[in-house]
Amino acid sequence: MLDLVAELGGSLDLHEVLGHAYGLLSQLVPADHGALCVSRPEGHAVYDWAVAEMPERFFQGYAEMVPHDFVRIAVAEQPNEVLRDTEMLSRASMERSFLYNHCRDIGMQLEHVMAVMLRDDPSWHGGLILYRDKRIAFSDHERAILQKLSRHFTNAVKNCRLFGSMAQRASLLDGVLAGIGHEAIVFNASGAEVARTSSAEKMLRAWFKPTELDPGGLPTQLADRVTWMVKDPYTPREPYWRGGALADLKVSIQRLPGGVGASFVMLLEEVPQLVPIPLPWLRILSSAEIKVAERVCWDNALIASELSITELTVKKHFSRIFDKLGIPNRAALIHMAWRQR
Question: Mean per-residue pLDDT for 106-110?
Answer without folding.
Answer: 88
